[in-house]
Amino acid sequence: MSELTPLRPVKQRRMSRDEKARDTYKRLLESAARVVGEDGYADASVSKITRLAGVAQGTFYNYFETRQDVLDRLLPYMGRQMLDHIGRSLAHDLTGAEREEARFRAFFDYLNEHPAFYRILYEAEIFAPDAHDEHFRILVDGYKGALGRAVERGEIKGYSDQELEAVIYMLLSARSYLAMRYVHDGKGGTGPLPGHVIDAYVKFVTRGLFAAG
Question: Which of 139, 88, 133, 137 has its CA nearest to residue 109?
Fold first, then answer.
């Protein structure tokens, strides 16, 4: 593992005890993300995580019962962080295909800002399967809400609830494989998503692959 600069609390006003606890919890999770992104789940030790977070190993166990506990919380934490990022990126007046395009772009923006997410996600199926399942429940539930509102606005028609769930998995799969092909360099780094990929995705969701015309 390359040397990573320890995360330190931001010194602003004096924090309350609860604020310090939340700050420490977040730094431990952010440090775990960096360690797993660099070394993988198998080599993510408590000592590496606490050293990077700038806390004693004993402090770790005030927040997590075991090493596996922090690994199980990591992907859902990042998944919610990603959804928050996407939500903040969407203009309130966007609807329909424009809103879906904005969600798509925001996902890849998050991926570029957090390159460790890719490894955390794909190794979780083996090393943190409960976290992997929870992560996808969070994503699917969020997408169900978004597409349900689009149905209410009349932007999506002709799909049953079961069909819309299948569509959600199609869209999530598209993100994963497009990231694998066009974004990740195979060395832990990321790059911008090419414009033609965005264009192809937008055409696919607005026209349908075999639509007339």
Answer: 88
d(CA 25, CA 7): 12
Q: What's the pLDDT band for 118 if we cut at 50, 70, 90?
A: confident
For residue 50, how many C-alpha atoms fall within 13 Å in the half-sphere facing its CB?
15
Query: What DSSP designation does 181 have?
Result: I
- Provide the β-strand partners of residue 190: 184
pLDDT of 208 reads: 87
The per-residue pLDDT for range 37-73, each reduced to its tens digit, is 999 999 999 999 999 999 999 999 999 999 999 999 9
* d(C-alpha 157, C-alpha 45), whole Å: 50
Which domains are present in the chain? 1-64 (1.10.10.60), 72-207 (1.10.357.10)
Over the range 2-25, which residues count as b (16 or more CB within 10 Å of their CB) and which as e?
eeeeebeeeeeeeeeeeeeeeebb
What pTM was estimated for this model as a whole? 0.84
CA angle 58/77/95 to nearest 5° reads 165
